[in-house]
Amino acid sequence: MATEKEKIITTSDVHLFYGKTEALKGISLDFNKNEITALIGPSGCGKSTYLRTLNRMNDLIPNVTITGTVKLGTQNIYAPDTDVVELRKDVGMVFQQPLPFPFSIYDNVIYGLRLAGVKDRQVLDQAVETSLKQAAVWDDVKDKLHESALSLSGGQQQRVCIARVLAAKPKVILMDEPTSALDPISTAKIENMLLELRDDYTIILVTHSMHQASRISDRTAFFLQGELIEADATKKIFMDPSKKQTEDYITGRFG
Amino acid sequence: MDPIKESLLKTSKAAKKEKKGKLISEFCIALIIIAVVAIFYFVASKGLATFFTNKINLWDFLTKTDWNPGVKDSHGHPEVGALPMIVGSFGVTFLSAIVATPFAIGTAIFMTEISPKRGYRIMQPVTELLVGIPSVVYGFIGLSVVVPFIRRTFGGSGFGILSGTFVLFVMILPTVTSMSVDALKAVPRHYREASLALGATRWQTIYRVVLRAATPGILTGIVFGMARAFGEALAVQMVIGNAALLPKNLISPASTLTSVLTSGIGNTVMGSLQNNALWSLALLLLLMSLFFNLVVRWIGKRGAVK
């Protein structure tokens, strides 16, 4: 590689146990700033679990043990003095189910700002407009900001959920199969949006769609049975993978 | 006739069974509907007799404060002012709901959000037990514990709306709690995750998302609790003092629609004004529980649309 890019998240030797079952077997993977990294692999390979270690969402599940280090910048996020709430403000997350809160669209988007104690109407209005525009859903909802977000279509709801994360101004956005419940048109809109967001955010995306990974990601990491098989530039992974298992999976000759 | 046509035209065994089952359930529904209609008709015909047969003014009934149907006042009208009972009933109902709601929501939050395992193991049997205790036991405890306590603390006889409130508070607590628990449990786990992922603390998640999403369900629980408090007769009767007077304060003897009904219905002659006046109280009770039901349905509908 010509220039070494700035790394925003570095993980080394991450093991995760559900009780006694080892779900992640020593993952070491780094993420470059302002890039989209796709995590691919078959169901149950640990890619979602790994994603959720990056903002400590696995803390919510009982009986989970995590070893190894995950650093955001230079801070180990599993260090005892790390404030999980602050961490999650820096590392936002979009889930698979497009499920906004049962509030108005406006209240959904400003949720993160309200938590931060922002009360100024003008700031909030501005944030709502900016984030909804960034999430490519402003034109769909600008006339009904105060209607329930649940009245929107699935694709619109997911974009409102993304706007909700964007409004909180995270540094990194984790996305757990954000388009797997959506139709192709909504998916295309979200993919285009992600390419634009890359300039301001670092995006880590779990996806089942090989096409999606190849279309929008800069780097791709292939997981299999709790192990990281290979991580490289997306072109390299899809054109000339160095591991046999990666090639088998990508060409669909898996199993 | 070819065999396929023959088999298609014949009613199968399963279809016959289906028909029979449908008939039985339709019969059961009809029976219940008839019972409900009959009760309404009976109570209404008796309760309205006060106004149509005995020519009592409905407005007087609702606003006059003297209750003594056997006695005529200076103008020769019978004294059937139900206001003291109406005030008493609404008083104990609203006060007990106001006192019970924070406790119920707090308990429900503890059971679902803070400590689901331990909370459930302890609180589930407790709430079930509280529901199962007969109301006469509540009344008896109220009579021997609450009434003396109020008498010592606030003076007076100890009988009154305050004692009724305390007893009803304990009685409706399990209803409101268990319905609040159901409402909180029905909030998708995903809402909590999404909120935490946005950098909310657990407490922020509870009061900004979970409680807000569960509000229709919790309100339904409160209204159910109020309906129970409004309709409770025995326990209230034992502690409220049973004086058909407009309560001057929370510790002066008062009465509710139900307490007057239970104490009076056995001592009146069917068809007399005294008896009809009691039926009018019953009609008022029935209309109120109908109203509570409508409120619950209305809340449910609004919650569903949201």
From TrEMBL, chain A:
One of its GO terms (biological process) is phosphate ion transmembrane transport. The keyword rRNA processing does not apply. GO terms for molecular function: ATP binding; ATP hydrolysis activity; phosphate transmembrane transporter activity. Keywords: ATP-binding, Nucleotide-binding, Phosphate transport, Transport. SUPFAM superfamilies: P-loop containing nucleoside triphosphate hydrolases. GO terms for cellular component: membrane. It holds the Pfam family ABC_tran. The keyword Nucleus does not apply. It comes from the Bacteria. Residues 9-250 form the ABC transporter domain. This is ABC-type phosphate transport system, ATPase component. It comes from Lactobacillus selangorensis. The lineage of its organism: Bacteria, Bacillati, Bacillota, Bacilli, Lactobacillales.
Automatic annotation (TrEMBL), chain B:
Coiled coil: none annotated. One of its GO terms (cellular component) is plasma membrane. GO terms for biological process: phosphate ion transport. SUPFAM superfamilies: MetI-like. Keywords: Cell membrane, Membrane, Phosphate transport, Transmembrane, Transmembrane helix, Transport. The chain crosses the membrane at residues 23-44, 82-109, 129-150, 162-184, 205-227, 277-296. It is found in: Cell membrane. Residues 86-296 form the ABC transmembrane type-1 domain. One of its GO terms (molecular function) is phosphate transmembrane transporter activity. It is a multi-pass membrane protein. The keyword Amino-acid biosynthesis does not apply. InterPro entries: MetI-like (IPR000515), MetI-like_sf (IPR035906), Phosphate_PstC (IPR011864), Phosphate_Transport_Permease (IPR051124). PROSITE patterns: ABC_TM1. PANTHER family: ABC TRANSPORTER PERMEASE PROTEIN YQGH-RELATED, PHOSPHATE TRANSPORT SYSTEM PERMEASE PROTEIN PST. Belongs to the binding-protein-dependent transport system permease family. CysTW subfamily. Part of the binding-protein-dependent transport system for phosphate; probably responsible for the translocation of the substrate across the membrane. This is Phosphate transport system permease protein.
